[in-house]
Glycosyltransferase family 2 protein (Chryseobacterium paridis), 311 residues
Amino acid sequence: MLDVSVIIPVYNAAEFLEKSVHSALQFEEVKEVILVEDQSTDNSLEVCQNLVSKNKKVILFQHPDKKNHGAGASRNLGIAKSTGSFITFLDADDYYLPNRFQAEKEIFNNPKIEGVFGAIGIEYLTEKGKQEYQSKFSDTLLTTVNYPAEGKEVFKGLLGLTPKTFGTFFHLNALTIRKSSIDQYNLQFNELLRVHQDSDFIIKLAYHCYLKSGIIDQAVAIRGIHDDNRITKIIKYSPQYNQRQLLFWNSLYDWSTKNNIPSEYKEKIYLRYKSFDLSQKTGVSKYYNIFIEAIKNPNILKTQYRFNYQK
């Protein structure tokens, strides 16, 4: 049987946390639920302490200095403190569905498989959150991929290098990974990224580890959409959006260089990074439309504008 450590970073989630934790405790596969409280300004810490007092599987940690360090650092602390053979993640305002580990029970019988991912759905918790989400993502009911995949096909798909469109990033809520694989490849969340650290982690994970799709046509977890979702606040291709994307792709480019990954992958990452880098440097100028095009399709830099990738 699987023995799973569920890691939940907690920041100002008092309203949702109890449902989130109980959704994980319903499974016999769950060995422990690790809460990492990140200097919330609401009563999240009190809620955490109450949950710990009621169930011995719930364990609470804070950062040594008791200060706010962000979701990436909180997940890293949770990984370091975990004792399960498998690691899963859950956002404090989200929850698991009863089929969360259905695919994993069978797939992990194959020792070659290091990680399994599935689909998540959405639940609108506020009208304002619904409007913001739909204005940015239309009415996408599932965050998932377009077809079953495993191994390097997953990594290539996330970079847009597969013949068929692989789809969006799968969500951390639907990922289960062997703890031994995280340790073997020394995989951590980039603590300098306050957003997109999850996508950064997933791409690196997909390169180093053998991942396989599980249930991708129905949700295994639910993401709560409300007024305070950070990802819905940023207007696409705005200066703030471009800056955050630049930091994300720069992180991946630094990683690709240090790990000496094959040039076809490194080039794709570099061109994405350079697109956002140039858009930041030019800002609103006569070149602005050029770089918006380049952000959408980095190959434009190589074709129309004769920009050469430096290996």
